[in-house]
Amino acid sequence: MFTGIIEELGEIVAIEALPDAARLTVRGPLVTSDAGHGASIAVNGVCLTVIDATGSQALERGEFTADVMAESLKRSSLGDLAVGDRVNLERPMAADGRFGGHIVQGHVDGTGTVLQRTASEHWELVRIALPGALARYVVEKGSITVDGISLTVSALHDAPGGEASFTVSLIPATLAQTTLGVKQAGARVNLEVDVIAKYTERLLNRADTAAHDDHDLTEGVPA
């Protein structure tokens, strides 16, 4: 599990296209400092498994390699990456660690598109479009993960029959230490909505179904 607090801006140093996957090699000296084969590292919000970080040369360069399956490529923007691109990196939270952000699984729900950037003196507003299927899980002042970054939704923009979007406010530290500092209008970003909202919806739907079934069974039965 992650918390959406980016530890390091890494760099894509190699990409190998496979028949139904891609193999990424990423430079990240901090996140590889204690990594080994099988470790988890979130890359732009996607939880990936390290398959090679044990070689002395790789460790000296601070690099790790991970495979990205077809499902992850389909749901995320990792397929858009090119050699030299910067990526947000985070290791899983230790059991005794601090919850700096919110519960982040590293399981991307879909992608959004940066629509607009509005700069001010001390922060910047970024408006992002999101798929309609995810809009119901996003609430004002709630948490959302954008490219692995835990952010607070500062405004919602619901357009009936149109494109849903939300706005986040970025402080100077976020602008300087994550990829959102440079992504411009038109760029795709990975989105993960609050998993608690998804579980709540699932449980409520099951409760409604059970209540409806009970009603059908008792309808017409004499009291």
Radius of gyration, CA atoms, in whole angstroms: 20 Å
Mean pLDDT level: 89
Largest sheet: 6 strands, antiparallel, barrel
Number of helices: 5
End-to-end Cα distance, whole Å, is: 51 Å
Can you give the helix content as a percent range? Answer: 10-25%
Write the layout of secondary structure elements.
Blueprint: E1 8-18, E2 21-27, E3 40-43, E4 46-52, H1 56-61, E5 63-69, H2 70-75, E6 86-90, E7 110-119, E8 124-130, H3 132-135, E9 143-146, E10 149-157, E11 164-170, H4 172-177, E12 188-192, H5 195-218
Antiparallel strand pairs: 1-2, 1-6, 2-5, 3-4, 3-6, 4-5, 7-8, 7-12, 8-11, 9-10, 9-12, 10-11
3D architecture notes:
The model has no long low-confidence stretch (mean pLDDT 89). A six-stranded antiparallel beta barrel has the order 1-2-5-4-3-6. It has helices at residues 56-61, 70-75, 132-135, 172-177, 195-218; strands spanning 8-18, 21-27, 40-43, 46-52, 63-69, 86-90, 110-119, 124-130, 143-146, 149-157, 164-170, 188-192. It has 223 residues and is α+β, with helices and mostly antiparallel strands. The chain is globular and about 70 Å long.
